[in-house]
Every structure is written in structure tokens, then in C-alpha cells.
Specification:
4 helices; 6-stranded antiparallel sheet; alpha+beta
Amino acid sequence: MNSLVKKKIGDVIIFEDNDLNIINGTFRGMDIDAKRIENPNTETIQFLDQLTKCHHPNVQRIFKYEVDRDRYYLVKELCTSNLVDYINNTKKNVKRTKKTRMIPILKDITNGLKYLHDNGILHKNINPKNILVDLNKSAKLCNIGINEINKKK
């Protein structure tokens, strides 16, 4: 079993395992999700700047990024589950129809996509694991362009 390493970068505390996989962290007293990007190019850094300016209830918030040597750490809003987990858990606990349960989620997804498209951002990898569900059962799009960033390395 890997032990966790605590790392303070700016005003963010990140917990990584021995393989440098980010587990979680804190920022301004709140729990956060985080993602590490190695050696980003200028285009990637400009895209990260654009993502930090996205503020919509159906898009996972990226509060900021911190730099530690050649590593950039995205500081992201923490959500409780992805859409796959939400559907599986809801099936077990709720006797409502799938249609009734999914209509608000589908509206959230389309609202988030419209916001991104209106701001010139394409998601490029919409799938149930890239749709998060928060405690209020609101859907939030995540990993916007992050897979593309990682492929450019």
C-alpha cells in the first residue's frame, strides 16, 4: 500500500501517493479535487487560464492552478460521484423511473455544454465518467480538454 505525501504549493495542499498520483487536497479550507499536468506548453497554459475563468453551475469549477517546477496542478471543485456511480446508486435506492430521474441531469448537461460552446470551448470527451454529480444532484461537466492536453505531451 502506498503512503500519502503531503505537498504545499502556494495556498494549496495536495496529497499524492508514492507514484505521484494525486489523491485529493485542500484549498482555502475546502476539500478539492486536483489534477497534475506535466510540462505544459504555452497553448496549454493559455487554455488553463481560459478554464479558470469558466463559472457555470454545470461545469466543474477550476479555481486555479499552481506551478511546482515543470508540474502544473489544477485545483478543482470536488464532486461526490460521476454519472455512472450516480445511476447505479440511484437504481438501488430509488423506485422512480429512469426518465424522471434523468431529465434534470440531461438539462444540466445541455446547459453546461451550451455555456462551454458559447465561450468557444469544446469538451471533446463527453462520457458518463466525465459528468460529475454533486451533493445537490446537479450534473457538472469535467475533464474539459484535459485529455487533449495530456495527449499533446
